[in-house]
Design goal:
It is built from 13 helices and eleven strands. The chain has helices at about 5-10, 25-30, 35-40, 60, 65-70, 95-105, 120-130, 170-185, 205-215, 230-240, 240-245, 270-275, 280-290, and strands spanning about 15, 20-25, 85-90, 110-115, 140-145, 155-165, 185-200, 245-250, 260, 265, 290-295.
């Protein structure tokens, strides 16, 4: 990769090793609790390690859905045969979403930037790219870093995507990230944040919050929840609305009254109770939805 491209991508403070860009202070990042936690989680995340353990003739190598399934939610609304110059994915993991968008939606791009704090998941993303060749012909920039400060130029990205990530980020860091995403998104660009915010009103989360307060052992994997108005305000104040004036914040179609698991213990009948929830009004959906998605209106 030429130095002019590196300068344009603004990765001067990063070093590439075996296909991944690492910040020069990577040793300090490695010492953080957040980094260590996600490296541990990443080793077996949703069974994605199977891609490294199967025989070459395995059907898994022929059919990516046997590894990842087909994502639902907002991703089903994504238009077919769309082509963009550049994509940034926040919390890209092992590549589940770009695999789906490339294979099922025929999304094409010239450049793909994937950022995740877990090196183990990024190694697996490179393996998935090798096996399934998603976004063929695109330049890949795989970056192992915390996402608050994005090493990309202003107004340089056409599409920003993220899936089930923002609920893991402390609020102050998330607000910083929102400003950064707004900075690098092109005016009139597109964003899709699928199932990215936990719902403050959801009874299941409220029960979890009580349990967490009473527990001497704190789990910071799942953090603050938000209302629709708080999400919209965050998008507005970050500058995202100025870049993408028309967007939608909507509840997910996963509803919950009772947590299915509390402190690693399954709650009897919780899954059955939650599956029977069929809220009919918008207000009920906003109460019982597990979370919220936000996305550009042109996808709707």
């Amino acid at each position: 990769m030429s130095s002019s491209v590196i300068s344009k991508v603004n990765l001067n403070n990063f070093q590439m090793r075996n296909g991944i860009y690492f910040p020069k202070d990577y040793e300090d990042l490695n010492k953080t609790e957040q980094k260590q936690r996600w490296d541990r989680i990443g080793k077996t995340y949703y069974g994605s390690q199977k891609i490294e353990q199967t025989e070459e003739i395995s059907q898994l190598k022929q059919d990516y859905t046997l590894l990842t399934g087909r994502p639902g939610g907002t991703w089903t609304k994504f238009p077919l045969n769309k082509s963009v110059g550049s994509i940034l994915e926040i919390g890209c993991g092992y590549g589940r979403i770009p695999l789906f968008l490339s294979k099922d939606k025929n999304l094409r791009c010239q450049k793909y930037y994937g950022i995740d704090i877990s090196e183990s998941l990024l190694r697996r993303l490179l393996k998935c790219k090798q096996e399934y060749n998603f976004f063929p012909g695109a330049e890949f920039y795989i970056i192992c870093a915390s996402a608050e400060l994005l090493p990309l130029e202003d107004n340089s990205v056409d599409l920003i995507i993220s899936n089930c990530v923002f609920m893991h980020i402390p609020e102050a860091q998330l607000r910083t990230l929102m400003v950064e995403m707004s900075r690098i998104l092109k005016p009139g660009g597109t964003f899709v944040f699928n199932h990215s915010f936990h719902n403050k009103a959801c009874p299941s989360h409220q029960i979890h919050n009580i349990v967490r307060k009473l527990s001497p052992i704190k789990n910071s994997v799942y953090l603050r929840q938000y209302t629709v108005d708080e999400i919209a305000a965050m998008l507005d104040t970050s500058g995202m609305k100025a870049k993408c004036p028309q967007y939608i914040v909507e509840p997910t179609q996963e509803y919950a009254v009772v947590p299915t698991v509390i402190k690693g213990v399954k709650v009897p009948f919780a899954q059955a109770v939650n599956s029977r929830l069929k809220p009919s009004s918008d207000s009920m959906k906003e109460t019982f939805a597990y979370g919220f998605s936000a996305y550009s209106a042109q996808l709707g």
